[in-house]
UniProtKB/TrEMBL annotation:
CoA binds at residues 218-222, 318, 341. Pathway: Lipid metabolism; butanoate metabolism. It is an enzyme of class 2 (transferase). It is found in: Cytoplasm. The keyword Glycosyltransferase does not apply. InterPro entries: AcetylCoA_hyd_C, ActCoA_hydro, ActCoA_hydro_N, Butryl-CoA_acetate_CoA_Tfrase. HAMAP family: But_CoA_trans. This is Probable butyrate:acetyl-CoA coenzyme A-transferase. Its main location: cytoplasm. Residues 5-182 form the Acetyl-CoA hydrolase/transferase N-terminal domain. It comes from Butyricicoccus intestinisimiae. The active site is at residue 243. PANTHER family: ACETYL-COA HYDROLASE, ACETYL-COA HYDROLASE-RELATED.
Amino acid sequence: MNVLEEYKRKLRTPEQAVQVIKSGDWIDYTTSLGQPILLDRALAARRDELTDVKIRGNLVFGPLEVAECDPSQEHFIYHSWHCSSYERSLCDRGLCYYIPMVFHLNSDYYKHFLTVNVAMACVTPMDRHGYFNLSTSTGVSGQILRKADIVILEVNENLPKLYGGYDECIHISDVDYVVEGHHDPFPDAPVPKITDIDRKIAENLLPYLVDGMTLQLGIGSLPHALGNLIAESDLKDLGMHTELCSDAYLQLHKAGKLTNRYKTINRGKSVLGVAVGSNELYDWIDENPSVAVYPLSYVNNPEVIGRIDNMVSINSCLEVDLYGQVSSESAGTRQISGTGGQLDFLTGASTSRGGKAFICMSSTFTDRNGMQQSRVVPRFGGDIITSPRSQVYYLATEYGVVNLIGKSTWERAEAIISLAHPTFRDQLIRAAQAQHIWRRSNKR
């Protein structure tokens, strides 16, 4: 049987395909643009026939019909490995549950521990060799599809096709069902508003950046600010090795900065695991030989990251305490995002020759009551710790950059307080004294 005949034999409507799902099953939706929109809608339509169907996804931009149609969660229960703003809103409504993890181990979780009864993912149209491209979801999809008892692919004609190192494709022979249907073009991801504080933090980081470095940038307004600043700077011959590719890298490419010329592995290639951004970004990575997509088990592997000379990792956080512990994923008990790859890149970049790992934040935020609050706190009391103090290196705010490597508790307290807003420094010093991490001879 040739691949086209096999394709036709496995072709189903979304409604037919989801008939294989049974009460109690574990279902996977992969991630972001891989969200199976037509299959999700068809599964939601079966709500009253099913109970206790558990679904996993991450960075899904919604809407998720299975979550929205069942506020009782008697029929469908949704879980996320890393919350998008939409999934965060589901968490706030009690309709989503976060699964803790670090991304470079995510494939191993599936391989060794998790059940996947049915995996459903969006892919590009099948090529003449019988392969579907996993596109911007390659970072997490391969092992999920291998582990699944049943694989259903939803063809999305709008997905970019990405060349890869491995696991970027799946063959029709490894698929149980294929569905087709109309998909609207992807909306551009919201462009984060860059603040004056973002620009100041980016300016503080600039002296630490060098020609030929390889960058990992997180998501949000700071990476965009840094991308703008680097694009306008004299820095040159930069590389890309990142868990999530955003429009910040597109800025660097358009400015002629992103050559990957001096990367010590994957030379000449912009390496990513997942991509989220504008349609212009998707057009750039589509069938681009200078871009290579890999599973996050490779991209986020600290050993791999450490082999890249001058690897610079820049991520953000919500709060830091005087011990150097970092909270990047929750506000109190409210889930905001997830651990993601922060620990992976902290570990990897710190072992890179010439590498640096930065965690950045504004010194303050405004709470719901309009009150200014410090992001530097005396100690955590309920917030989820994303990065332990033993693995936090450079910290940055609009007031400067400090390196915590090898610093004792009093040295850390002094350095971290120097990053706090001046309004809060005296009370932080008093807290440090009460916590016995402030030298009596320290200057105020």
